[in-house]
């Protein structure tokens, strides 16, 4: 036979067919040995009572071997509204979700990898949070009209696997519910605020029957188009937090964009947002609420409530009715002790909360930027999350703040689509190194600056002192004037002394001679003064010094006149007096007015000579 | 004579230290008294004009000098636009930008807004210092210190320089005093150095404020007065000639002034005096060369020729149109009633009104009474500098009487003159007191000496006779009185600063019956609404008062603003407001207007709203369009009322309709019926009406600002 087979010319062909046949048979046997992956039971609840949508799916897997579990999210939904996805196993442990890199046109594939420890994870809980998927319908309503929101989804949970049995529960805020084309949806029942879809048996993979529902809900759909939280770390004691918000109310717009204050005061515009609440840490201080044009006075800071935080009630400048926008900032600071730990040898660990302060149930964020500015000179920066929340993007920047010469390293994290109220975001743990010098620098910089400045001033003032002592005409004349004044006043003093010494026997000759010596000296000095005055005027022009010289000359001229007059009167009655004391008193009295002038003059000349 | 103090400081040094300390304290006071605005309200730019300056500063800081010079602002005066670079006094913006860049270079990343807010307090400190040196130059250091202390808080100056009033005046006053100081200094010394500094100060003044014309005119007048007093010197010649030539060239560098500096009539006085000074100098020179009798005939011939040539030149220049005409603002300086008769747009501004007597006392307090005393003391001790102060004081007093806002120019003069008066009154008194003290000491010493050695060498001068006792009482009363006066002055200034002049006028505040402060933030509410909820290229029509604020706060295009350069454009806006709805709509559509904004105080009781200003839009549009008849807006007996019997045109006008739209449906107070206007104190004439061409877009919380959308044209027909 074998020879026979081999002798035939077509034997090789047959052999090949045989091999192929066996291969197929083996393949078949192998696949029947392993059970097909299939979902046994699927329970879905959709919550539509808030401004974002929470979809919770409990999936019971069959006992087949699951290498990975795949989730399919329609591409448009994935891009526009899927804010968060969380998968847990039966013991509420988070499972890792990976995004499939290749892009399908219609779907985004997410792969859930089972934990190494839990080999058989028979139940998987999937929580999907969507935002921006409730659209007002109609888009324009009258000012006192009610708002209806429209929601679309698959009637049966969209999955690549076959489902044995599944059902869906939808929770609405109010009982006014209208399904679009209700008759086409199988097994739909509505009772009160809830609608039930299913149960459906033996659902094929990728079943794509969808439903649309319109329901009454008068809430503002406040969306943060751009929300930034900036945290500045200072090792000198404070953590500065600054948050900026750009909000838009995406609720139904009022026809014609008309806003009537009167109607508003009459409680129309049910979809308007007037205020939000920010939760600040208990020890927050210096809280500010501002916008681009200044303070906003309408806010209240309430004390701690049970949640161990302070509540900042922020009222907007104007109510946000449907379609209106607003922007504002809040800022505060907290002591850094609670947030910064020293790990020894100039290593530090910082924990900062990721979520923004405003986390109200009807505020969702389209774009969230979280910035952490570390102190200048921080090195070897590493960071990790404390929970399973992950930012989309991350990059570095530098920031120049007060007294920064090189700039602070800033870690910038970005996340598209975020629902602050939906989960605990945990905090970011950042570890970095900071040398002692880097954080002393801030203090040493101003100290050094002032030291240099003061040194320069003191040096400069010394130099200037020398110069003025050197060769300034001005001060020379001033000094000459001053010394002349001293000489003149000394002469008077001497004269009075000599006269007061003359007692008892007084001869007119004696009196006259002493007077004339004084008189001559005074004359001489006055001449000098005159000369000086002229030269001052000639060389300095009409300066203060010239007036001063003039004044001095005037004063002493008057003094001299008084002195002369006194002399002539006293000489005539010289015989009658025994002592000159009384006469001298008279002289001094009459000279007094001039002395007052002199005092003023002295102030002036000191001024000029400084 | 020099006393040595225990610490080793000579009395000169002690005096210097003392003066320095007083100046520092004065600066500190002047800075902090202006912060009331920030404490009571917040760090915000005030009023109207500062908002433009702030906006321009932001452009300068963000885009740089060249972009600033080339800045064509298409967001104002739509559709004309405004060439800002060439129609602005850029001094204050450059100053703020410089401070901003310096602070940034010193690693202080401040906000440009805060720099602008703090500009005025900062420059008031500089004014203090400059005033001290100026007064010291013309009188003595004591007077300087007094003047510095006075100007630190004089309400007349404070009103324009509180924190946040980021206006030209806040730097210009400093520049002006600095310029005056250099003028006096250069005339005293005749040095080119000081004259050069005068020119630089003048350049800064020209760059900062239109009031530089005051300097341009007062300096030549001063020169003439000095010549007439026979005080002509070469120093004067050098100082003025340098100033005129270099200063004029420098001032022409400012684009807004440009060739006006040699063409416009306001600047001609300086030129004429400059030429006259050359001739005078020439004649003086001739006098030295020729004998007296020939000189007389020569000089006669010379002066006649010059005079004839001058008159001819003036005629030719005026008729050939080389010389610009005299502007209205200048006429109204000479004739206080000119503006209200001829130019409604000037008359409509509150700060261009003549000053009431009360405001002299309010703005100057005791200084208003000390000024004459100061002038008296100036005449007692006459020198070149003092003559300048007297001239400055008297001119400023006259101008302050013409226009309320020129009180600002008077205030420094009043401070200086009062400083001089105070020093002349107090210094001799204090000197007397000191002397008595000395005498008492002296007599004690001599008593001791007497008791020691029965031979008295020296008898103390008698100080206890009746005459000097009376004098003593008088002196103490004088000193005590002066103290009281100064105390009252300081109290008044602080009160004025905290209550009257610190309002930003963007935020209104009032006290409730329980004494609590409440704020009405309606302006910002509405402007901020515009900023975020209208198209970025929306055009807003409002009366020109709010133009700068809208472009500053809301960043939207406005039709007219506070730079009132185009009268007919403003008249058109006035025409919109005083026309019936249909006609107003047609004009609005022609102007491409999207929103109309009106200020309405009737619900809150805010009296300076658009209804109260409404006669001005009527008058201004009458000056362009004579068909507008003011009497149609008044009641039959010629009163302006909004209630029963209001003028028919008024009730039909757009302004009335926009202000009172749906106002009649609300009862704001229990005591008053619906539609009761709190400002006018009456129930409005027409309550129920509908708007056909406009629709309400926004109304602020207290109905203060109402914004209406101009409806689109109907699609059919």
TrEMBL record, chain A:
The keyword tRNA processing does not apply. Signal peptide: none annotated. It is a single-pass type I membrane protein. Pathway: Protein modification; protein glycosylation. GO terms for biological process: protein N-linked glycosylation via asparagine. Keywords: Endoplasmic reticulum, Membrane, Signal, Transmembrane, Transmembrane helix. The keyword Membrane applies. The chain crosses the membrane at residues 12-29, 418-437, 443-460. InterPro entries: Ribophorin_I. Its main location: endoplasmic reticulum. Subunit of the oligosaccharyl transferase (OST) complex that catalyzes the initial transfer of a defined glycan (Glc(3)Man(9)GlcNAc(2) in eukaryotes) from the lipid carrier dolichol-pyrophosphate to an asparagine residue within an Asn-X-Ser/Thr consensus motif in nascent polypeptide chains, the first step in protein N-glycosylation. N-glycosylation occurs cotranslationally and the complex associates with the Sec61 complex at the channel-forming translocon complex that mediates protein translocation across the endoplasmic reticulum (ER). All subunits are required for a maximal enzyme activity. Component of the oligosaccharyltransferase (OST) complex. Belongs to the OST1 family. PANTHER family: DOLICHYL-DIPHOSPHOOLIGOSACCHARIDE--PROTEIN GLYCOSYLTRANSFERASE SUBUNIT 1, RIBOPHORIN I. This is Dolichyl-diphosphooligosaccharide--protein glycosyltransferase subunit 1. It comes from Galdieria yellowstonensis.
Automatic annotation (TrEMBL), chain B:
Residues 540-596 form the STT3/PglB/AglB core domain. Residues 19-417 form the Oligosaccharyl transferase STT3 N-terminal domain. InterPro entries: Oligo_trans_STT3, STT3-PglB_core, STT3_N. Keywords: Glycosyltransferase, Magnesium, Manganese, Membrane, Metal-binding, Transferase, Transmembrane, Transmembrane helix. Its EC number is 2.4.99.18. It catalyses: a di-trans,poly-cis-dolichyl diphosphooligosaccharide + L-asparaginyl-[protein] = N(4)-(oligosaccharide-(1->4)-N-acetyl-beta-D-glucosaminyl-(1->4)-N-acetyl-beta-D-glucosaminyl)-L-asparaginyl-[protein] + a di-trans,poly-cis-dolichyl diphosphate + H(+). Gene3D superfamilies: 3.40.50.12610. It is found in: Endomembrane system. Pathway: Protein modification; protein glycosylation. One of its GO terms (cellular component) is endomembrane system. It is an enzyme of class 2 (transferase). GO terms for molecular function: dolichyl-diphosphooligosaccharide-protein glycotransferase activity; metal ion binding. Signal peptide: none annotated. It is a multi-pass membrane protein. Its main location: membrane. Its cofactor is Mg(2+); Mn(2+). The chain crosses the membrane at residues 20-41, 83-103, 115-135, 141-158, 170-203, 209-229, 236-256, 268-289, 301-323, 360-379, 386-404, 410-433, 473-490. Belongs to the STT3 family. This is dolichyl-diphosphooligosaccharide--protein glycotransferase. It comes from Galdieria yellowstonensis.
């Amino acid at each position: 036979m074998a020879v026979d087979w081999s002798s035939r010319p077509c034997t090789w062909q047959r052999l090949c067919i045989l091999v192929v046949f066996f291969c197929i048979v083996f393949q078949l046997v192998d696949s029947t040995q392993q059970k097909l992956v299939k979902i046994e039971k699927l329970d879905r609840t959709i919550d539509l009572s808030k401004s974002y949508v929470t979809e919770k799916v409990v999936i019971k897997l069959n006992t087949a071997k699951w290498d990975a579990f795949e989730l399919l999210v329609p591409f448009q939904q994935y891009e526009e509204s899927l804010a968060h996805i969380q998968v847990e196993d039966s013991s509420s442990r988070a499972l890792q979700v990976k995004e499939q890199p290749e892009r399908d046109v219609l779907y985004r594939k997410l792969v859930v990898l089972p934990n190494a420890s839990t080999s058989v994870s028979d139940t998987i809980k999937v929580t999907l949070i969507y935002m921006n998927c409730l659209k007002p319908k109609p888009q324009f309503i009258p000012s006192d009209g009610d708002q209806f929101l429209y929601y679309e989804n698959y009637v049966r949970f969209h999955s690549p696997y076959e489902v044995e049995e599944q059902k869906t529960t939808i929770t609405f805020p109010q009982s006014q519910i209208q399904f679009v084309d209700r008759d086409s949806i199988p097994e739909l029942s509505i009772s009160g605020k809830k609608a039930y879809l299913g149960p459906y048996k033996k659902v094929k993979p990728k079943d794509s029957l969808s439903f649309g529902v319109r329901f009454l809900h008068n809430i503002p759909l406040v969306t943060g188009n751009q929300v930034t939280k900036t945290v500045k770390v200072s090792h000198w004691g404070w953590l500065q937090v600054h948050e900026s918000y750009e909000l838009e109310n995406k609720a139904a717009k009022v026809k014609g964009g008309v806003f009537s204050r009167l109607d508003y005061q009459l409680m129309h515009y049910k979809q308007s947002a007037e205020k939000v609440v920010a939760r600040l840490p208990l020890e927050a201080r210096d809280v500010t609420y501002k916008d681009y044009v200044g303070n906003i006075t309408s806010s209240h800071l309430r004390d701690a409530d049970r949640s161990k935080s302070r509540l900042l009630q922020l009222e907007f400048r104007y109510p946000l009715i449907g379609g209106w926008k607003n922007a504002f900032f809040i800022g505060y600071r907290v002591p850094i002790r609670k947030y910064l730990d020293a790990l020894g040898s100039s290593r530090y660990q910082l924990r900062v909360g990721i979520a923004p302060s405003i986390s109200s149930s009807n505020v969702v964020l389209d774009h969230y930027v979280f910035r952490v500015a570390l102190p200048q000179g921080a090195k070897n920066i590493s960071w990790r999350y404390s929970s399973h929340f992950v930012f989309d993007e991350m990059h570095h920047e530098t920031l120049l703040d007060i007294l920064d010469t090189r700039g602070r390293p800033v870690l910038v994290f970005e996340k598209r689509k975020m629902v602050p109220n939906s989960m605990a975001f945990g905090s970011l743990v950042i570890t970095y190194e900071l040398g002692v010098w880097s954080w002393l620098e801030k203090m040493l910089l101003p100290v050094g600056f002032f030291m240099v400045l003061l040194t320069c001033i003191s040096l400069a003032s010394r130099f200037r002192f020398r110069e003025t002592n050197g060769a300034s005409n001005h001060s020379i004349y001033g000094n000459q004037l001053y010394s002349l004044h001293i000489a003149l006043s000394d002469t008077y003093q001497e004269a009075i002394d000599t006269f007061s010494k003359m007692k008892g026997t007084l001869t007119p000759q004696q009196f006259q001679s002493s007077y004339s010596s004084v008189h001559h000296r005074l004359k001489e000095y006055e001449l000098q003064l005159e000369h000086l005055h002229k030269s001052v005027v000639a060389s300095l022009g009409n300066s203060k010094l010239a007036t001063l010289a003039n004044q001095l000359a005037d004063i002493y001229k008057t003094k001299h006149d008084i002195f002369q007059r006194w002399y002539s009167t006293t000489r005539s009655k010289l015989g009658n007096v025994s002592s000159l004391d009384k006469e001298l008193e008279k002289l001094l009295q009459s000279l007094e007015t001039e002395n007052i002038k002199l005092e003023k003059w002295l102030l002036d000349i000191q001024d000029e000579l400084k | 004579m020099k006393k040595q103090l225990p610490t080793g400081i000579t009395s000169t040094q002690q005096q210097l230290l003392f003066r320095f300390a007083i100046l520092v304290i004065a600066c500190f006071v002047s800075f902090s008294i202006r912060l009331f605005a920030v404490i009571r309200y917040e760090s915000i730019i005030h009023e109207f004009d500062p908002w433009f300056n702030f906006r321009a500063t932001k452009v300068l800081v963000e885009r740089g000098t060249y972009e600033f010079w080339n800045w064509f602002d298409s967001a104002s005066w739509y559709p004309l636009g405004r060439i800002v670079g060439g129609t602005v006094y850029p001094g204050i913006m450059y100053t703020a930008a410089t401070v901003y860049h310096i602070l940034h270079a010193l690693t202080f990343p401040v906000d440009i807004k805060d720099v602008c807010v703090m500009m005025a307090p900062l420059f008031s400190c500089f004014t203090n210092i400059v005033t001290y040196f100026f007064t010291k130059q013309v009188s003595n250091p004591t007077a300087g210190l007094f003047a510095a202390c006075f100007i630190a808080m004089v309400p007349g100056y404070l009103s324009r320089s509180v924190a946040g009033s980021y206006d030209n005046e806040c730097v210009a006053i400093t520049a002006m005093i600095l310029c005056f100081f250099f003028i006096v200094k250069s005339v005293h010394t005749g040095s080119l150095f000081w004259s050069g500094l005068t020119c630089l100060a003048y350049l800064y003044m020209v760059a900062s404020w239109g009031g530089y014309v005051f300097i341009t005119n007062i300096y030549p007048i001063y020169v003439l007065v000095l010549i007439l007093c026979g005080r002509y010197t070469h120093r004067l010649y050098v100082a003025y000639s340098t100033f005129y030539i270099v200063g004029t060239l420098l001032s022409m560098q400012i684009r807004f002034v440009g060739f006006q500096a040699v063409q416009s009539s306001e600047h001609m006085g300086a030129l004429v005096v400059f030429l006259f000074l050359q001739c005078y100098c020439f004649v003086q020179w001739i006098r030295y060369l020729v004998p007296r009798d020939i000189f007389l005939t020569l000089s006669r011939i010379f002066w006649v020729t010059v005079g004839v040539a001058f008159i001819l030149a003036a005629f030719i220049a005026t008729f050939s149109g080389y010389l610009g005409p005299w502007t209205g603002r200048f006429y109204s300086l000479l004739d206080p009633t000119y503006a209200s008769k001829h130019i409604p747009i000037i008359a409509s501004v509150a700060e261009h009104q003549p000053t009431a007597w009360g405001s002299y006392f309010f703005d100057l307090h005791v200084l208003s009474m000390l000024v004459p005393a100061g002038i008296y003391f100036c005449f007692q001790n006459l020198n070149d500098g003092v003559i300048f102060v007297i001239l400055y004081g008297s001119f400023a007093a006259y101008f302050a009487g013409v226009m309320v806002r020129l009180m600002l120019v008077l205030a420094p003069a009043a401070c200086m003159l009062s400083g001089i008066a105070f020093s002349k009154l107090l210094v001799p008194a204090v000197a007397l007191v000191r002397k008595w003290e000395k005498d008492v000491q002296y007599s004690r010493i001599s008593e001791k000496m007497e008791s020691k050695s029965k031979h008295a060498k020296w008898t103390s001068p008698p100080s206890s006779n009746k005459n000097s006792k009376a004098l003593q009482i008088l002196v103490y009363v004088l000193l005590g009185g002066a103290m009281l006066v100064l105390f009252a002055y300081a109290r008044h200034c602080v009160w004025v600063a905290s209550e009257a002049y610190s309002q930003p006028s963007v935020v209104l505040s009032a006290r409730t019956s329980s004494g609590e402060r409440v704020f009405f933030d309606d302006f910002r509410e509405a402007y901020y609404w515009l900023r975020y909820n209208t198209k970025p290229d929306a055009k807003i029509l409002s009366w020109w008062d709010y133009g700068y604020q809208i472009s500053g706060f809301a960043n939207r295009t406005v039709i007219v603003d506070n730079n009132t350069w185009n009268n007919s454009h403003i008249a058109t806006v006035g025409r919109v407001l005083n026309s019936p709805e249909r006609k107003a709509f047609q004009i609005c559509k022609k102007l491409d207007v999207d929103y109309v904004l009106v200020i309405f105080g009737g619900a809150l009781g805010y009296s300076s709203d658009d209804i109260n200003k409404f006669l001005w839009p009527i008058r201004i549009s009458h000056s362009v369009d004579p068909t507008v008849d003011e009497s149609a807006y008044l009641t039959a007996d010629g009163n302006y009322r909004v209630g029963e019997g209001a003028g028919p045109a008024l009730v039909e006008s757009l302004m009335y309709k926009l202000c009172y739209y749906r106002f009649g449906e609300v009862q704001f107070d229990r005591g008053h019926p619906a539609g009761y206007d709190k400002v006018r104190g009456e129930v409005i004439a027409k309550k129920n009406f509908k708007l056909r061409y406009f629709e309400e877009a926004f109304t602020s919380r207290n109905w203060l600002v109402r914004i209406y959308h101009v409806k689109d044209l109907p699609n059919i027909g």
